[in-house]
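Please, does this match?
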Amino acid sequence: MSGHSKWATTKHKKGALDKARGKLFAKIIRQVEVAAREGGGDLEGNPTLRTMYQKARDSSVPMETIERAIKRGTGELEGVRYEPVVYEGYAPCGVAVIVECLTDNRNRTGADIRAIFSKNGGSMAEPGAVSWQFERKGVVTLAHDGKFSEDDLMLVAAEAGADDVRDNGDSWEVITPPKELAAERAAVEANGWPTSSSELTMHPSQSVPIDSENDARKVLRVMDLLDDQDDVQNVFANFDIPDSVMELAVV
């Protein structure tokens, strides 16, 4: 997942921050709203809402905005009714892609996603054709500031139920079962290590290495176009692009 994570980080650093933040807020708020609708507005009784709430707080979404989204989800305020839908496909070079959406119009969203794949060297896939290559995981991210060692973090993370700890150069990722995400974050923070985010992700069982700048640009173009589509909430893929190539390919 390192290549995928690096893409997201580098893109956000190089992108127009205000525009990117506005789109991020809109996507997260939609996730909060749907979580509240499906499981209720109580954070303690709705683990999915609790995760989305924490994601919103990590992204500095104003509390008032979060609270309104929860109320729309529970029916206390009027709002558009969104439903989740997942699309699967392949980007260039055989890269497997999962696209998670929240939409009020399945036909429109499906047509948009299909066009992005087909017009950029990729293709849509049947349900299940790609998803078997991924597993749902929780990821807690910490800054890599040199104040703690990998062994120390591994010890704390393992005791809290983590599957793995990964070094991404400027950050650590603690990989955990989905149900252990909140407990893992709490355990890490209790040991004095501030976290920057915690979220659910789809973790690939194997990666597709992309070593040329040209191929990387083709793959990342599909990723960027999918990520920019308004109904798309998350894009997961199994590419692995070296840092040196990623820096050249992300513009």
User: Anything to note?
Assistant: The CA atoms of residues 158 and 164 lie 8 Å apart.
